[in-house]
Design a protein that fits this description.
The chain has 117 residues and is mainly alpha-helical. It is 91% helix and 0% strand.
Length: 117
């Protein structure tokens, strides 16, 4: 395939002129280098191996990052849980204080009314 045909096809799929020309130049230079089917199969095989290795490396990096993020989230959730438990305990204590104060106040008022009435 000639460079002009490549450029036309790339324009049809919305490549800019600069992108299309660059790709056509690259393909043309590699086309000269790999003229036989065997050369193309070798180049394709090498590219496949390189891409698979890169994919595996990226996969491992993402798994590590995911595990790290998971641990960070678990730690944050544990901290939030402990803080909520602390606040709930404080609220219970405050509620008991107010109930006791109310009972005492009620007893005092009842006593005062008993002696006054």
């Amino acid at each position: 395939m000639r460079a002009t045909e490549i450029i036309e096809k790339l324009h049809k799929v919305n490549f800019t002129d600069e992108q299309a020309r660059t790709i056509a130049d690259i393909l043309e230079s590699y086309g000269e280098k790999y003229t036989s089917k065997k050369h193309m199969e070798t180049a394709t095989g090498n590219l496949r191996v390189a891409l698979e290795a890169k994919l595996e490396k990226t996969k491992l990096e993402l798994q590590k990052e995911l595990e790290k993020t998971k641990l960070e989230l678990q730690n944050e959730l544990e901290k939030a849980k402990l803080e909520l438990q602390k606040e709930i305990s404080q609220s219970k204590f405050d509620l008991v204080k107010w109930i006791v104060a109310g009972v005492v106040a009620n007893g005092i008022v009842a006593t005062i009314l008993k002696y006054l009435g």
